[in-house]
Design brief:
alpha/beta, Rossmann fold
């Protein structure tokens, strides 16, 4: 039976909500620390965590914002975020079930937006970025953090293939050029950008998404058949662990 993309995303992540709340890759990192520093300086009245997943951006936002709203497609993920927020004593955090492309908020509702490891799941990337701009006040800062595809087609094809095999809700890791085009086209001005590589521990990476064995074997087959250039760029290890390209882009709503 065919399913809408949003249903695929919900079915992939809902049952894995607890795993994403507890994930070491998602719950810590230099990017979260940098984001929190920006939020501390901005001290927003109302901040948005767009596509919150396990809620790790929202928890950081809630330390410095008067109010935080976390949105996600998955009701189960949002329930896990509410429970974790309660455990952390974050009474200023609420949730809203919604796709990134159709946010249920008025224009200019938020003073700051954070979006981390979400955009590569959106059905319509450009529409999601436009919605992010729409719900922000003019001059408000936003931070987008995600895996990105290298500009070289050889590397791009490899990363999209292994991402999709691991997680059927994956749409695309966008290139830095695609990010710039979407952000500027939506009315954002780019202020800063940094990139780095993050190690994906293959057994943990596969287990977190409960990737079927047939797909896990296909990933390993692709890795083992990869060219020397691909193996070097992603630093593919004997057990399948590898380095994923990550970007953090700071923008302002122009």
């Amino acid at each position: 039976m065919s399913r809408a993309h949003e249903t695929v995303v919900d079915e992939q992540f809902g049952p894995r909500a607890k795993a994403y709340v507890e994930s070491a890759v998602h719950s810590a990192g230099q990017d979260l620390d940098a984001l929190e520093m920006l939020v501390r300086q901005a001290a927003p009245a109302h901040a948005l965590d767009l596509g919150c997943g396990g809620g790790h951006v929202a928890y950081r936002l809630a330390k410095h914002a008067r109010r935080v709203t976390a949105t996600d497609l998955s009701a189960e993920m949002l329930a896990a975020v509410r429970a974790t927020a309660a455990e952390k004593g974050l009474a200023n955090l609420d949730t809203e079930e919604a796709p990134a492309e159709k946010l249920p908020f008025a224009d200019g509702t938020f003073d700051l937006l954070g979006c981390r490891y979400s955009a590569h799941h959106w059905r319509d990337f450009v529409a999601g970025v436009r919605e992010a701009r729409r719900v922000l006040k003019q001059g408000a800062p936003a931070v987008f953090i995600d895996a990105y595809a290298p500009g070289d087609a050889l590397y791009d094809t490899h990363v999209q293939a292994v991402e999709l095999l691991r997680d059927t809700s994956h749409v695309r890791d966008y290139t830095l050029a695609e990010w710039a085009l979407a952000l500027e086209g939506a009315g954002f001005a780019i202020r800063a950008q940094r990139t780095w590589q993050l190690r994906m521990d293959y057994p943990v990476w596969i287990a977190r998404m409960r990737t079927p064995e047939v797909s896990a074997r296909a990933i390993r087959a692709l890795q083992m058949a990869a060219s020397a250039e691909v193996r070097a760029h992603f630093a593919i290890e004997p057990d399948g662990s590898f380095m994923l390209d990550i970007m953090m882009t700071e923008v302002v709503a122009a």
